[in-house]
Amino acid sequence: MIQSKPKTWEISLKKQLKFPLNEIWDVISSKNNLELFHPFCKTNKIIDWCGVNSSDLLIYLNGRCYTRTFLSWHKNKGYTLTIGSNKSKLSYVEWSLYNEYGKNYIKISIYPYLLKKIPRFISYIPYKLYIIPKLKSYLSSVLNGLDFYMNNNKKITKNQFGKHSWFS
After folding, report:
1. For position 123, which CATH number holds?
2. Core-most of 46, 58, 72, 125, by most CB within 10 Å?
3. To which H or E segment does residue 150 belong?
4. How far apart are CA 71 and CA 106, in angstroms?
């Protein structure tokens, strides 16, 4: 199991939300939370929900199943987790909440397992041209879904911000 940030490419996106950090935390730390705002989530089944060491199953619209295992859990600040279909193909993810110049933000950072065993100088072009744009598009949809849910108190629809070739 990964205990710290892996030495791989980081793909991050942040979004300003017009809500107090504790309200954002309440949404992102609730059971089955992805069913509320994740546009590519078919179901989000709880395995164990207790803070650190929580785990759930994310089933995407295309049927792909990933287990999320939470490594850290800091109320009103965020959490870290691993996500993947098996123990050898785990990506590391950070969800961070913070205030900057009086504005509240959420930031999601992904450290993907894709190509991590390949030297950086070889994986640079595939990451820059394919993986980073795909994951930034994914993160944008997730963060827009959270913003939509919080502003409207209404679940988003499937593929609400467009389809994604990896998960729709």
Report:
1. 3.30.530.20
2. 58
3. helix 132-152
4. 18
Burial per residue of 67-106, b for 16 or more beta-carbon CB atoms within 10 angstroms, e otherwise: bbbbbebeeeebbbbbbbeeeeebbbbbbbbeeeeeebbb
User: What pLDDT does residue 4 have?
Assistant: 60
Within-domain flag for 106: yes
In a domain, 88, yes or no: yes
* Host domain of residue 23: 11-152
In this predicted structure, what is the pLDDT of residue 87? Answer: 77
Q: Which amino acid is at 36?
A: L
Rounded-to-integer distance, Cα 92 and Cα 108, Å: 11
* Residue 6: inside a domain: no
Q: How many domains does the chain have?
A: 1
- Give Cα 114 distance to the centre of its chain: 16
The pTM (predicted TM-score) of the whole model is 0.93
Three-state DSSP state, 12: strand
